[in-house]
Amino acid sequence: MVALAENPKKRLTVQVAEIAPETTTIRSLDWDRDRFDIEFGLQNGTTYNSFIIRGEQTALVDTSHEKFRQLFLDTLKNQINPVDIDYLIISHTEPDHSGLVKDVLQLAPDVTVVGSKVAIQFLEDLVHQPFKRRIVKNGDRLDLGNGHELEFVIAPNLHWPDTIFTYDHKTQILFTCDAFGLHYCSDATFDEDLEAISPDFQFYYECLMAPNARSVLSAMKRMGELEKIGMIATGHGPLLYHNVEELTGRYRKWSQSQTKAETVVGIFYVSEYGFSDRLAQSITNGIAKTGVAVEWVDLKSADLQELQEIVGRCTGIVVGTPPTSDTAAQTALSAVLGAVKEKQAVGIFETGGGDDEPIDPLLSKFRDLGLTPVFPAIRIKEMPTDNIYKLCEEAGTDLGQWVTRDKSIKAMKSLGADLDKALGKLSGGLYIITAKKGDVKSAMLASWVSQASFKPIGISIAVAKDRAIESLMQVGDKFVLNVLEEGNYQGLMKHFLKRFAPGADRFEGVRTQAAENGAPILTDALAYMECEVLSRMDGGDHWIVYSTVYAGRVSKPDALTAVHHRKVGNHY
Q: Is the pTM of this model over 0.70?
C-alpha cells in the first residue's frame, strides 16, 4: 500500500493497493471534505475508489472525482498504459465516480464502455463524444481471461437508477460502487476496525440507501445467487473484507425494518435533472428525522405498475417537477396523479432544470384530487444555496410531522397518569441554542440542558431528532448556549416557541451579535457559552449531545437563570 501523490493544500492523496490476484485499487482520499452534496454532513472525509482487473484483457472499474484529475490520471498511467485498457465498467454515472470518464476516453479511445442501458444513456449526455459501448443486463458475463470472468448484477436505485454490481468469479470480489460503502477516509484499505467505521456505515445507509430499502433487498436477493462473496469493493471508504457477513447482514436487517414501516412518504423526481437529486436528498433528510420511511422513485425509469403500488401505500407524496419534454417522465407523472388518494399529504419542489413542469397548475391538480399541501411549493430560480437545501430539509420535517401527528398524540396519551405527573416534577432551566454553519442559521428553545463534566468542561443537551437545528449540531460543529433570565425571558421564549415556516429567519426581530464561532449571541440573554459538539448518543426520539465549553460571559452576575416547571412529563 503506497500513497503515490499528495496535494498538501487540500489534503488530497492517492493510494494504490493490490487487493487480490491481478486486482488493484486506486483510492482517491479526500481527507478534509466535510460536506457531500451540501446537505450530507461528513465527519471523517471520504474516498473515491477505482479498480483495475488484469486478465488476458484489462478492465477499469469506475474512475474518480474530477478534483483528483491530475493525481488520479498520473497514478493510473503509473499502473498501466491507458491504451491497454480494454473495458471501462461504469457502476453508475454519478460525477464522483464518473467525473474522469471523458479523460479516460481521450487517453484510451478504443476502450469499450460497459454499463446498464440507463448508464449508457446518461453517459452520452455527460461526455458528448462517440464511444464504444456494451449494454449489460442482469446475469450477463464478460470473460477477461485467466479466470477473471465478470458477472453483472442489475441494482437500480442504489442509489441511482443506472447502478450495476460486478462480480469477479476468480477473486470472489463484488464491486458495488455506492452500496455497502461509507464516507470514511483513512489509510486502512480494509474494514479491520469495525467499531470505528460502524457509525459512518449506518449514517451512510440512512442517508442514501434507506429510501431505496426495497431495491436494497432486491439487489441482495440477486447477490445471493452468486458464488461466495469474499470481498465487497465499495466506491467509498474502506473495502469490506473482514466483516462482509456482519455488514451485509446489517443492510438486510435495516432494509427489512424500513420496508415494514407503517408510515411511508414517496419522493417522485427525475434523477440527474436540474438540482433534483440534491433537493430530494435534503427533503429526505428532513422526513427521516421524524422516523418516517421514504421511498424514491425516478419518474424517468419507473415501472408504471410498481409506481402506482408505491403511491397507493404512501401516506404522503413529494413531487419534483419533471421536464415537460420528457415523455417517459410525463407518463409517469400522469400515473402518479391517477393513483393518489384523498387526504394524502403532498409537497412539490421545482428542480431548476430549465424545462420544469409548471408548479402551480400541478399543485392545483393535486388539490383538486383531495390531497393536502403540507409545505409551500419550493421554487428554484437559480443555483440552490445552503439555505435552500436547509429549507428543503425543514419542509421534509414538516411533512413527516404532519403524517405522524395522530400517532404522536396517541403516544403522548399512552403514558400512565402517575408516571406522567412524576416525570413532570423534573425541572430545568430555559435556554436558547443558536448555531450557524456557512450561511445557514438556526435556533431552538431548550430546557433539557445540564453540566456533564468538569475536565473537560462539558454540557449535555437533549435535542429532538426532528428539530431543525439538529443538522447543525453534528460532531465538530460549534454553537452558542444562551441562558435566559428569570423574570425577563417571556419575549424570547414566545418568539422561539412559535412554529417557523421552512426556511424562515428565526432571528428576525431579535437582537443578536456574533460569537467568535459565528453563531448568534442573543443580546438580551443573561449569559452565553460557546460550545463544540464532541459526541452524540442515540436517545430514542432525541440525540443526547455532549459538548465542550470553551468560552462564555455573564451580563448580569446577580440575576438568576429562568426555571421551567412542568405539570406532566409527556411533552416539554
A: yes
